[in-house]
Amino acid sequence: MRSFFFRHPWLFRLGMNLWPPMLFCGIKLVELSKDFRYARVDLKWKKTTRNINGSQYGGSLFSMTDPFYAYCFSDA
């Protein structure tokens, strides 16, 4: 399953955009290169993604970047 998922970057992007931790946090994978070396991710500015100071919550920022290092940028 993983090999099929990684043969098609558009399918990977669709799956990541529909994955509940990304979907409900307002995180969207906008662009993904064919060799999985470049990913552009967008985080919506919502009331649930802000901290008490009005800036982006660090957990949302971490959630935005963490899965892509594990899936896209590993040499496995």
Descriptive notes:
The protein has 76 residues and is an alpha+beta fold. The chain has helices spanning 2-7, 9-18, 20-23, 58-71, and strands at residues 27-32, 39-43. The protein has one domain (2-71). A hairpin with a 6-residue loop joins strand 1 and strand 2. The longest helix has 14 residues, at 58-71. It is elongated, with a radius of gyration of 13 Å. It starts with a helix and ends in a 5-residue tail after the last helix.
Task: Name a few traits of the molecule.
4 helices; alpha+beta; 14% strand; 45% helix; single chain; 76 residues
Shape designation: elongated
Largest sheet, in brief, is: 2 strands, antiparallel
Radius of gyration: 13 Å
Estimate what percentage of residues fall within beta strands. Answer: 5-15%
What topology, given as strand order, has the largest sheet? 1-2
Number of helical runs? 4
Strand-and-helix sequence, N→C?
HHHEEH
How many E-type strands? Answer: 2
Give unreliable regions as ranges: none
Distance between the termini: 15 Å
The number of domains:
1
Oligomeric state as shown: single chain
Overall mean pLDDT: 81
Structural class: alpha+beta
Helix fraction by DSSP (H/I, runs of at least 4):
40-55%
